[in-house]
Design goal:
Chain lengths: 475, 390
């Protein structure tokens, strides 16, 4: 049956843009999450909105589910497809259609790599602000699906704050335009509900985003602490003073040691309990004034030393440790689960201690590298996925970490999404009424529930307790 | 007969009964923005849901009931050195729920974003009385679909907002505004030059001569459009921002103002316009949007009452009234340029005749209609009737 489907898809996109060989499908069986693998029935690479529309219409006619995929860097399993589902990969839709400097916006296709957009905007003194750690590989389409964040979202906001308009191919194949080039919604805010819908509503084929001016001055400093608690408290102290850092990142002892013993050594003090990376940006005088204030606060909060990068090279080096931390963590175990929870900023000191205790209880190395200014934690668990006992301990520890963060007033994911990974945990933060409504909203966009099936919302037995919402036409 | 539930449970019960009885409800905040309820709908005052239940200045989060007046909220926040950079037009009596339901931002949206960018979570009563808890109280949250976005700016069609969890900011230490008076052309050139040079002001608002005159900034002549730039932050930051705009203008400002007062005056003055239309244009296209709209607003001489949040391309137009045919023609002309025209404020009769959103593009209309039908299955929140007109 799928050979036939593959032939028909080939008629739309060309034979070389449909893949069915098992070896090739295998390369699409994983995304950034190491614990789950799924093999699609086939992979199709449409090259235009029209091709996406015809591909989805054909899949609709054949009642074949599909999963949209960008670079496959996601960390929640959201871009995994299991046969009979087809994987619709959007990397050919990688054109930057327009950088409109006068209106500070850009129109891009979903396969554009995040950092490529900022590069294209740079000659105009502009940049695309949301900067996930994977920004050299991840795509804007994936960022829209996941409502991606990043270190600089503390000051500039996450993806949803930057998307103005979308062209979307619905699962039926119909093409709709949502929002307007100025950002004002047409009626209800359909752009707002689409961003972060994790591929359940269709495929965005054109994305209009805001750009912001590249700040002329950047000041980066590293504060090191002998106590994790003090570092956590310093985060709130900086924010309370009215400073809005461009980024405020924390790394714990484990992270520092991993980075410093790797090829990415950034010169962090190896004996510190935690370091804070604080970046301020803006114009000269403003940055100067905030930097002096921030430095004083950091010292007052117990920092052993505050090192201010003197030049771009030193700044680059300070950031290297943060950005390459995940690479460095690869040394500690064969595999790595990057967790993603959020707590109120003031809860950080307590929650970090509780997470350390959970790690000890399950005999797992926990490494914290995270967006402290937002209260967005990334406890990373190093393990060997080939050992079922370790895998079981990682899953149990992850569940406990999420329950701890929810109990502290937080949530189960701040920027990675629910995907497959957090499916079981969404009920910790959403009740049966809300989950049922989400499922019904999804069916407005996708009545057949063929777009990214089995992701985000409970299915099967788990869905049994959900409230059923019917539209007025059906009630 | 206005009903005034005293808490969330009473509100939910009221909506549940109305839905069962097929009765239409018209939830109201202060009643200062939309002056009246749709005929045939029972007004529901949310004024008693006026509790600031949870305020964590250190986390920069507040939870406020829908009926909390924005003025009272601002005063409470200021006591602890924080603020909510949401400045919709209207009186300080306007409520949290009203501002969010209509999706109204103000000049500060230039930098801080529209109303939706300040909301971390909502407690909403759906049209069948179900209490929905959407989002949360933390800075980042992607757990499940972002349904709160539909409620904010949904004009009531997606449920009654009972409570909002709002993201706050530390109060800036310095707050200064510089005003230039110029022709529309020159105001547009200066605004464009300032933005091209990298300006990131808290507000960059262009006001037409009637509004500038009402604020006491000009005499109302054709060459007395006001370009008002507000800078917030530390002293150096504010000075640098205003210098950058001054250098783009090539002249020092006509007025240098301190603090929030000029903007409070802006809110109050725009709040006197009986009809407010909001056009969503590209930032650089605002002169065209103003020119396009003026003839349809009963303005025969001189420029219309208008205020433009330039970095967002939000063009607000004021009028005494708005005829359905004029609105239809304006909307068609705007739609040809890709610009939505929202009726942000009017009396119930005008809202019913003109529609808050007008005819949506067909595909969008089908989605909006079906979504509203889920949130309000019995149609008691006006989704099927006046309300949002979906």
């Amino acid at each position: 049956m799928h050979l036939d489907l593959a032939e028909e898809l080939a008629r739309i996109v060309g034979a070389r843009f449909v893949r069915t060989a098992p070896a090739e499908l295998g390369t699409f069986a994983s995304d950034g999450l190491p614990t789950l693998h799924r093999t699609p029935a086939l992979v199709v690479f449409p090259g235009s909105t029209d091709e996406v529309s015809r591909v989805l219409a054909l899949l609709a006619a054949r009642d074949v589910p599909f999963v949209a995929r960008g670079a496959g860097t996601g960390l929640s399993g959201g871009a995994l497809a299991e046969a009979p589902a087809a994987l619709v990969t959007l990397t050919r839709l990688a054109r930057i259609r327009r950088v409109d400097a006068a209106n500070r916006r850009a129109v891009v296709e979903p396969g554009v790599v995040n950092v490529a957009l900022s590069r294209a905007a740079a000659p105009f003194g502009l940049m695309y602000a949301p900067d996930p750690s994977s920004q050299t590989a991840c795509t804007i389409g994936g960022n829209v699906a996941e409502n991606a964040g990043g270190p600089h979202c503390l000051k500039y906001g996450v993806t949803t704050n930057h998307v103005l308009a979308l062209e979307v191919v619905l699962p039926s194949g119909a093409v709709v335009r949502l929002g307007s080039p100025g950002g004002e919604p047409w009626g209800p805010d359909l752009v707002g509900v689409f961003v972060g819908s994790e591929g359940l509503f269709g495929i965005a084929t054109e994305i209009t985003v805001r750009l912001v001016p590249v700040p002329p001055q950047v000041r980066t400093m590293l504060a090191d602490y002998t106590s994790l608690r003090q570092a956590g408290e310093a985060v709130s102290a900086v924010i309370a003073e009215g400073i809005v850092p461009a980024a405020l990142e924390m790394m714990d002892r484990s992270a520092i040691q991993m980075v410093e013993s790797s090829v990415y050594a950034a010169g962090y003090p190896a004996d510190a309990a935690a370091v804070l990376l604080v970046e301020l940006d803006g114009r000269g005088g403003a940055v100067e004034a905030d930097a002096r204030l921030a430095q004083a606060i950091l010292v007052r909060s117990g920092a052993r030393a505050v090192r201010v990068a003197r030049d771009a090279a030193e700044r680059e080096r300070l950031w290297q440790g943060r950005k390459k931390a995940f690479g460095a963590m690869g040394r500690a175990g064969a595999d790595l689960v990057v967790q993603d929870t959020v707590v109120p900023r003031t809860a950080l000191p307590d929650v970090l201690e509780e997470i350390a205790a959970i790690g000890a209880r399950y005999r797992l190395r926990v490494t914290n590298v995270f967006h402290a200014g937002d209260g967005n934690l990334h406890p990373n668990l190093s393990f060997d996925a080939s050992d079922p006992d370790q895998l079981a301990r990682v899953r149990a520890a992850s569940a406990e970490i999420m329950r701890t963060c929810v109990a502290a007033g937080g949530t189960i994911t701040g920027e990675h999404g629910v995907g497959l990974d957090k499916l079981a945990y969404l009920p910790l933060v959403c009740g049966p009424d809300e989950l049922g409504l989400m499922a019904a909203v999804r069916r407005v966009f996708d009545p057949g529930e063929r777009a990214n099936p089995g992701k985000v919302l409970p299915t099967g037995a788990a869905a049994a307790g959900l409230r059923e919402w019917r539209p007025w036409s059906a009630s | 007969m206005t009903t005034a539930p005293r808490d969330l449970a009473e509100l939910a019960e009221l909506v549940r009964r109305a839905a069962a009885a097929g009765e239409a409800l018209a939830p109201r905040g202060s009643g200062t923005w939309w002056p009246d309820a749709a005929p045939g709908a029972r007004p529901v005052s949310l004024a008693a849901l006026d509790v600031i239940s949870d305020f964590n200045p250190a986390d920069l989060v507040v939870t406020a009931g829908a009926g909390v007046p924005l003025g009272r909220l601002a005063a409470r926040l200021a006591e602890r050195g924080v603020w909510l950079p949401l400045d919709p037009p209207g009186s300080p009596a306007r409520t949290v729920g009203g501002a969010l339901a209509t999706g109204s931002g103000g000049p500060l949206a230039a930098h801080y974003g529209p109303a939706r960018d300040h909301v971390l979570g909502l407690v909403v009563v759906a049209g069948d009385g179900t209490v929905l808890r959407l989002g949360g109280r933390v800075m980042k949250n992607v757990a499940g679909l972002d349904l709160a976005k539909l409620v904010i700016g949904g004009c009531g069609a997606f449920g009654v907002i009972a409570e909002a969890h709002l993201r706050l900011r530390a109060r800036p230490r310095t707050d200064r505004t510089a005003v230039w008076l110029a022709s529309a052309d020159r105001a547009a050139r200066v605004a464009a030059a300032a933005l091209a040079a990298g300006a990131v002001p808290a507000a960059l608002e262009v006001m037409s001569p009637p509004l500038a005159a009402a604020l006491g900034w000009g005499g109302g002549g054709e060459r007395e459009w006001a370009l008002a730039v507000r800078a917030l932050g530390n002293a150096a930051e504010v000075a640098e921002e205003l210098e950058m705009v001054a250098s783009a203008a090539g002249t020092p400002p006509a007025l240098a103002l301190e603090g929030e007062a000029p903007w409070t005056a802006w809110r109050e003055t725009v709040g006197t316009w009986p009809v407010v239309l909001r056009v969503g244009a590209e930032p650089a296209a605002w002169p065209e949007a103003v020119a396009l709209a003026a003839p349809h607003l009963g303005v025969t001489r001189g420029p219309a009452a208008a205020s433009v949040t330039v970095p967002r391309g939000t063009v607000r137009l004021g009028a005494a009234r708005c005829a359905p045919e004029a609105a239809r023609v304006l909307r068609a002309a705007a739609a040809a340029r890709g610009w939505p025209v929202t009726l942000e404020r009017a009396d119930a009769a005008t809202r019913a005749a003109v529609g808050i959103w007008g005819a949506l593009p067909p595909a969008t209309d089908a989605l909006a209609h079906d979504l509203a039908g889920l949130f309000d299955p019995a149609g008691c929140l006006g989704g099927r009737g006046e309300g949002a007109g979906v």
